[in-house]
Amino acid sequence: MKNILLIITLLISWNAIAEEKTWFCATEKSGGLIYKDSLWKTAKFKPKRITVMQTNDYLKFSGNVLGFGSEKKCSGSSGFLVTCTDYSTIFTLNLETGLATSASTFGWLSRFGEDDKPYDTLSTTVWRCESF
After folding, report:
1. Cβ count near 104 (within 10 Å)
2. For residue 101, is pLDDT > 90?
3. Which has the closest alpha carbon to 51: 38, 62, 41, 40?
4. Buried b (16+ CB within 10 A) or exposed e, 49-68
5. Cis peptide before 47 (omega within 30 of 0)
6. The model's pTM
7. Cβ-based neighbours of 100, under 8 Å, separated by 6 or more
């Protein structure tokens, strides 16, 4: 009887264990616009790398590369996409292929003044992510 209870307890607790995964993402392509000197110009962005810690539908981003800064509750979509949004930034990761996209209009929405940098920007980035 004790063995049966032990087996049932183990089976129940096995489902409670969170799926954890670490994704290492690097910029594949990036583009956007920058508003400087009262003109919109195309912009080139430096390649970036981020680490994304996944626990079920929660993603935690390294640094503040995307403007999230910390752990975010994200929504799963059809079992293989995880999407995070925060004000003017969106990040979507395909869990099957490891491809991701992000887009941000944060700079344009939060003008701080003439002397503050970075300048107003709108950007889209395509990421290639690998999990180990």
Report:
1. 22
2. yes
3. 62
4. ebebebeeeebebeeebbbb
5. no
6. 0.72
7. 25, 91, 92, 93, 94, 126, 127, 128, 129
Rounded CA-CA distance 69/80 in Å is: 23
Per-residue model confidence as pLDDT tens digits over 60-93: 888 777 766 566 667 765 678 888 887 778 899 9
For the record, the structure tokens of 89 come out as 């930034």
Is-contact 30 123, C-beta < 8 A? yes
Can you give the pLDDT at residue 58? 79
49's tokens: 């790398």
Give the whole-angstrom CA distance, residue 57 versus residue 67.
18
CB 57 within 8 A of CB 83: no
Mean pLDDT rounded to a whole number for the chain: 76
